[in-house]
From TrEMBL:
Pfam families: tRNA_Me_trans, tRNA_Me_trans_C, tRNA_Me_trans_M. Coiled coil: none annotated. It comes from Zafaria cholistanensis. Belongs to the MnmA/TRMU family. One of its GO terms (cellular component) is cytoplasm. Catalyzes the 2-thiolation of uridine at the wobble position (U34) of tRNA, leading to the formation of s(2)U34. The record marks 126, 348 as: Interaction with tRNA. It comes from the Bacteria. It is an enzyme of class 2 (transferase). This is tRNA-specific 2-thiouridylase MnmA. Residues 285-364 form the tRNA-specific 2-thiouridylase MnmA-like C-terminal domain. It is found in: Cytoplasm. Residues 209-273 form the tRNA-specific 2-thiouridylase MnmA-like central domain.
Length: 377
């Protein structure tokens, strides 16, 4: 099989490519240049896609004896990931740029180009598993190492994309084993730290980064009963669940800290309240997609049991879900959580599971708390 290995410059993608070579595939390595002005060096484990990363990817391909290319996807990344990130924050939502990158860059733009060039599959270092059912249809499942499982950020993959996806690390029991294997293979990235945070905001200052791209204006901070308790320099700089940096001029009657419950960009207000009101039990999801063929209930509108995960490293919680028609006629997910979740914000992605299988995903459009509904009457 002719395989295009996406080489990030990290240890996972390097070992994944090595295993693809060892399996007998015809492998070509490619590093995606996602910025026209990449940083010269990483800062610890922050960020990715730097000049250093491209060089590490080249060194790994050299050790493996496979061809290496750099493809410039910077314009596509800017439009589909960075600009989407800014637009979502401007609309009062909290997006997940890694989901958008996997959806629109690594498994849309990259796979599309790979197939056009005659490749059969794209290989990545993600910790996730693709399993074929009795009819040969592909399903996405959690990796063997749940601590490193990345099936959440791959929940956007479609049935067609799964046909051309290769995840050689699926059954690896631990990240330590991957590093040990890289060491044995002579890969210089064996002890390279994992990247984290948003790659295009390597210093981690999301608020400062957004303030340079979104026009900020002073506005009011309200408590959950509608009382003005402070002011802010711009509503879009806040996220649901935030506690620090509120600088409230009026303390809560019970003296307890308050948290951001809601962001209202239309009137530039931020709503705060007690921590218990962060717990939500009803979610509505838009932009629904299915990882593999959808289950029968997706077409019938019947309610089905599932587990819901709303963060890459969050714990899944039991839920009941059903597909319904939205106001625009497009399918939506209506989800009732058996166990409430805290700090869920519109714009986040909810991924649905049954056992280890990823059913699909949706972007959270609203997250409601029964307690708040009761308090509001």
């Amino acid at each position: 099989m002719k395989v295009l290995a996406a080489m990030s410059g990290g240890v996972d993608s390097a070992v994944a490519a090595a295993r693809a070579v060892e399996a007998g595939h015809d492998v070509v390595g490619v590093h995606l240049a996602l910025s026209r002005m990449p940083g010269t060096l990483r800062t610890g484990s922050r960020g990715c896609c730097t000049i250093e990363d491209s060089r590490d990817a080249w060194r790994a391909c050299d050790v493996l004896g496979i061809p290496y290319y750099v493809w410039d996807f910077s314009e596509r990344f800017k439009e589909d990931v960075v600009e989407d990130f800014v637009a979502e924050y401007a609309a009062g939502r909290t997006p997940n740029p890694c989901m958008r990158c996997n959806e629109r860059i690594k498994f849309a733009a990259l796979l599309e180009k790979a197939l056009a060039l005659g490749f059969d599959a794209v290989c990545t270092g993600h910790y996730a598993k693709v399993i074929e059912d009795a009819d040969g249809n592909r399903e996405l499942h959690r990796a063997a190492d749940w601590a490193k499982d990345q099936s959440y950020v791959l929940g956007v993959l479609t049935h067609e994309q799964l046909k051309h996806s290769l995840f050689p690390l699926a059954d690896t029991p631990s990240k330590a084993e991957v590093r040990a294997e890289a060491e044995r293979r002579g890969l210089s990235v064996a002890n390279k730290p994992d990247s984290h945070d948003i790659c295009f905001i390597p210093d981690g200052d999301t608020r400062g980064w957004l303030s340079e791209r979104i026009e900020m204006a002073d506005g009011e901070i309200l408590d959950h009963e509608g009382n003005v308790v402070g002011t802010h320099p711009g509503a879009t700089a806040f996220t649901v669940g935030q506690r620090k940096g509120l600088r409230l001029g009026r303390p809560a009657p019970d003296g307890k800290p308050r948290f951001v419950l809601e962001i209202r960009p239309k009137d530039n207000t931020v709503v705060v309240g007690p921590q218990e009101l962060l717990a939500v039990d009803v979610l509505r999801g838009i932009k629904v997609s299915w990882a593999g063929l959808p289950i029968a209930a997706a077409g019938s509108g019947e309610e089905f049991a599932c587990m819901v995960q709303v963060r890459a490293h969050g714990d899944p919680v039991p839920a009941r879900a059903r597909v319904q028609a939205g106001a625009d006629g497009r399918p939506e997910l209506a989800v009732s959580l058996v166990e409430p979740l805290r700090g869920v914000a519109p714009g986040q992605t909810m991924v649905l599971y049954q056992g280890t299988r990823v059913l699909g995903q949706a972007t959270i459009d609203s997250a409601r708390s029964a307690a708040w509904r009761g308090a509001a009457g």
